[in-house]
Amino acid sequence: MHERARVDRLTEAAHANLVPPMRPTEYATLKADIAAHGIKVPLDVHAHQVLDGRHRLRIARELGLKDVPIREATLAGDDPVTWMIKAAVLRRHLSDDQRAMMAALLAKQHPKAKGGDQKSPVRRARNQSPPRRSASIRATKQPARREAAVTMNVAPKRAEKAATVLQANPNLAAQVHRGEVKLSAQAVRQVHHEHAREHARALPPPDGVFDCIVIDVPWRYDRQPSESGLRGECDYATMSLAGVESLRLDTAGGA
Questions:
Q1: DSSP secondary structure of 152-180
Q2: Which letter does DSSP use for residue 219 in this model?
Q3: Are 115 and 50 in contact (CB under 8 A)?
Q4: Cα 157–227–224 angle (5° rounding)?
Q5: pLDDT value of position 136
Q6: Tens-digit pLDDT profile for residues 104-154
Q7: pLDDT tens for residues 11-20?
Q8: CA torsion, points 14, 166, 110, 98, in degrees to nearest 10?
Q9: Which residues are CB-neighbours of 173 under 8 A, at least 6 positions away?
Q10: In a 3-state reduction of DSSP, which class is residue 12?
Q11: Do residues 75 and 51 lie in contact, with contact meaning Cβ atoms separated by under 8 Å?
Q12: Is 182 helix (H, G, I), strand (E, B) or coil?
C-alpha cells in the first residue's frame, strides 16, 4: 500500500507550467476513469509539492476527494524541476516542437539551475566595470538554453527557434507548447512575417518627383499540390489580375 496524503496539503510544483497541459479530451477521459475507479497511480511528491501528477491532483479536488496515494520522488541528484521535466518527457507523448518550447521556457524561467555563468558575480567583482549586455547574454542565456535542449532531448537549433517565438509572441508560443501549432511551419513563419510588417511600417514614404516608378503589386499566389516551389498564401491582402490591371497612379503634375 502506498502512503496517502490529504489533498489540501499538496501543491503543484514550482514551474509546473513548463509541462504542457493535457488536452481537454484526455483530461475528461482521465477524470471519468478516476471517478469510477479512483486514483491508481500514486502522485510523485517532494516536500508536499507534486512533481508528477498535477492533473490527478486537480481532478481529485474537482471530485471532492479528501486524500490521494503518493510516493516520494527519488531525485537521484536532479533538482525537483529537472526531475519533473524528465518524468513528463518519458511519460507523455510530446512532439519535438513541444519539447523545444519546454526547453525555451526552462531556460527562461529556471536559468540558474540549468546553465549560465555561475562565476559571473566573482568576475564582475574583479573588473572595474560590468561586462557589456551582449556579452552577458551570450555568457548566461545561451548555455542555459543549450543545456535545456539536452534535458528535453531536442536539437539546439529547434530550441533556438522556440526561444525566438517565445520572445516575439508569447501567445503563439503557448499554442506551440500545447501542441496546437507547428513550430517551424507556422509559428516561426508568422513571427518572421510580423517582423517584416513592422519593418515595412517603419520605413518612411518616398518623397520627390520620379521619372519612373516600379511597383511590385500584391499578386495573388495559388499553390498547387504539385507546385511546391511556388509561394503559398500571402500574409497581406492580394489583388486579382483584373484588379491589378485597373490600377491607376495619381500622376497629378506629370504627363
A1: HT--HHHHHHHHHHHHH-HHHHHHHHTTS
A2: B
A3: no
A4: 110
A5: 33
A6: 998 888 765 444 444 433 333 334 343 343 333 333 346 788 888 888 889
A7: 999 888 899 9
A8: 70
A9: 101, 104, 162, 165, 166, 187
A10: strand
A11: no
A12: coil
pLDDT tens digit sequence for 194-216: 888 888 888 888 788 888 878 88
Q: At what angle do helices 156-168 and 96-109 cross, to 10 degrees?
A: 70
Cα distance between residue 255 and residue 249, in whole Å: 11
List beta partners, residue 49: 11, 46
Domain boundaries, the chain: 3-81, 95-202, 212-247
Fold for 3-81, please state it: 3.90.1530
Amino acid at 102: M
Distance separating alpha carbons of residues 22 and 34, to the nearest angstrom: 15
Q: Looking at beta carbons, which pairs linking 196-203 to residues 24 or more positions away fall under 8 Å? A: 197/235, 197/236
